[in-house]
Every structure is written in structure tokens, then in C-alpha cells.
Amino acid sequence: MAEIRIENVSKHFGKVIANQDINLTIADREFMVLLGPSGCGKTTLLRGIAGLDPVDSGSIWIGNRDVTYLPPRKRRIAMVFQSYAVFPHLTVFENIAFGLRMQRVAEEEIKKRVHAAAELLQITNLLQRYPAQVSGGQRQRVAVARALAVQAEVLLMDEPLSNLDALLRLEMRAELKRLLKEVQTTVVYVTHDQVEALSLGDRIAVMRDGKILQCDTPLKVYNDPATVFIGGFIGNPPVNFLSGKVIKDGSRRLIDIHGVIFEPSPAVQHSLFEGNHPEVKMGIRAENIQVSEQAIDHHLNGDVLVVEPLGSQNLLSVQVGNERMKINVHADIDINPGQRVWLSIPAEKIRWYEARSGELLPENS
Fold first, then answer.
1. Per residue, what are the HEC states of 157-213?
2. How many CB atoms lie within 10 A of CB 32?
3. Do 153 and 77 contact (CB within 8 A), yes or no?
4. What DSSP element (H or E) covers 237?
5. Last residue in a domain, options 165, 200, 232
6. Which residue of 88, 138, 253, 256 is most buried, as measured by CB atoms within 10 A?
7. Are 75 and 115 within one domain?
8. What is the pTM of this model?
9. Residues 84 and 129 in one domain
10. Cα–Cα–Cα angle for 240, 199, 39, nearest 5°?
């Protein structure tokens, strides 16, 4: 078992709070992604799991072992760094074998494990070369192979693809997903790239200011972001947010957005009634909006400011009142800057947020 339990973990650097009372359970063989902007505390948390930066309070468990105060070498972990950290004076074979030699593994077993890891990463033909003689993507494979060769219970990865160019990153992402399905180890993966997070993780823990704001499956985080911050961080383009005023209509609560009245679900109305919220925000993704060039009563409308061709689709920037929206339309739809368009927004795709806290209003009363 390589379940990881992080219980009430905090870490400070002087007056800076890097991690604050974090609780997170990562299941055995789960691929957990820690996602967030620079400075949110994700790498600090990863280094805490690794034992590279001791935590100030709380505890960390791997399986049934409390590893909070154990040195890294006794935690049965392997780590892949952003900088590859391969030794330039050692061959690819010796780089992969390095951790095994530190563990004093028998020479025959070292050969077996190095070749197995190299075959998995498809770098067997590079074993006698030096890092300077291989590409950046191949060096990254060497770093991953070295981590896999030690057969650790937990694999920790700190932005391992960020130094690669866009095309190579795309290829390595798919390769990494295939590879880690085969080795079936518990993985904690740090990234600020939301595309990586959505494509790789079994679950995503979204972090900000040293806290985990939401931890759920990629689909859930994408479709139901728990806060306005998460909706604005995840997705390209991110969620559109429009400001609305709550109107009291007897027991009902309606929402006025730029003169158009929306009636949210009974569960959201119940939350608005109980919480007495005067203002809310509507969240809607760019791909969930239908655009019409013909006037439609009781629909939001706005002027197209910019049309960005993106191949199979165009991305429109539309001014609605004093707010701006991003909308995806098919490339065949001929819409030009300066046109007025009307927007059809399916009620089931709307997410409603409390304006002051930025938190998602519950759909289940």
C-alpha cells in the first residue's frame, strides 16, 4: 500500500505561509496533480512529502508509516525534478543506475532494472551515450527512468515537462500517461499547466495561497469549479463571469444580468433565499454559448470586438454591457468585428457564484 495521507500540514518561511492546514488523502496507485499559479505552495507541499523541507506542523503518512520526521532516503520515494538533474559525466546507463548503487543493489539486479526502465521509456539505444549527446526530451526520459528503476512506493514529479518545447511536451505528456498506467505506482505531480493537469490526473488539487481550494476529478473541476478563481484559472479560454443582481419575487429569487432576467434552479434559489445574497456572478464556458446574428427577445446581446481564427473554430470577444466575454464558434460561421450578436445560454450549463466570496452556490439544497 502506498496511500499518502497529509494531515493538518503547515509550512512557513519566515512570515510567508507556504502551506496552511492542508489535509489531503492520495489513494494507492492514484495519479494526483497539484495545480496552481506560481507561489501557491504546491512545490513546498511536494517537498514536504519528499522530506526535503520538513513541515512545521501536522503529519505525513505513506501507507501505515508516519514519515513526518524520516529523512528522504527512508521514505521509499523517487523524485523527478524540473531541471532533469542528470549527471553530465555519467552515461545514460550510469545515470539510471545511480539510485540503485546508492541502495547497494547487486550488480546483476542493477543491469536488469536499468534495462527494464530503459525499455519502458524507449531509450535502450541511448544507454552508452552521455547526456550532452541526447536531446532535452531524451534527458527527461533518463530522469524518469532513474526514478522508476528504484521501484519506489511513491513517485514525486515537480513540473517535469516545463523545460520542453510545446510539441515535445505534447508527446511526452501522452508517453508519461501510458508509462505510469503500466508501472501502477502512486504519483504526485506538480504543475502550473492546467492542460497537463486535466489530461494526466485522476484527481486535481487546485491550490492558492497555501491552501487547497478544490480536489476532484478533472471533469468535475472543469465543469463545476468551486470558486471564481478556479473557473478563471482552468480552461482556455477560462469561464466567463457576468455580474448579476438578485431580484426578490415573493418566494422566488430571479437574477438580472444586463437587463435580462434569469431564473436559477430551485436549489440555487433556496441558497439565495437562505443566504440573503444581493449580488451573484454567472459562470458560463465559451463552448456552451450559442451565437445568433438575428435578434432574440430576452437574450443577452453584445458587440463583437475581436475575431480570432483558431483553425477549426473562431474565438469571439464580445462586449456585453460593461463586461467582456469569450465565445467559441465554428469556423464556418461568418461573424465580423462590429456586429451585434445574441447569446443563447443553456440553463443547465450555468454555474452561479456568490459575488463577495466567489464561492459556488450549491445545486443541491
1. EECCCCCCCHHHHHHHHHHHHHHHHHHCCEEEEEECCHHHHHHHCCEEEEEECCEEE
2. 21
3. yes
4. none
5. 232
6. 253
7. yes
8. 0.89
9. yes
10. 65
263 in any annotated domain: yes
Number of folded domains in the chain? Answer: 2
Last residue within a domain, chosen from 198, 232, 266: 232
**CB 154, CB 186: distance < 8 Å:** yes
Query: What's the pLDDT band for 365 if we cut at 50, 70, 90?
Result: very low
CB atoms within 10 A of CB 297: 6
Q: What is the dihedral of CA 168, 86, 52, 114, to 10 degrees?
A: 90
Least Cα distance to 56 among 31, 2, 95, 19 occurs for 19
| Residue with the three cell numbers 458587440 | 303
pLDDT tens column, 276-327 = 788 999 999 999 999 999 999 999 999 999 999 999 899 999 999 999 999 9
Please tell me the chain's helix, strand, coil percentages from 3-state DSSP, rounded to the nearest 5: 30, 35, 35
Cβ atoms within 10 Å of 230's Cβ, excluding its own: 26
Task: List the one residue out of 270, 42, 40, 82 whose CA is nearest residue 169.
Answer: 82
**281 and 191 assigned to the same domain:** no
> Percent of the chain beyond pLDDT 70?
99
Query: Cα 82 to chain center, whole Å?
Result: 17
Provide CB contacts within 8 A for 180, sequence distance 6+: 31, 155, 187
The CA distance from 271 to 291, in Å, is 30
Q: Which triple of cell numbers denotes residue 204? A: 486535481
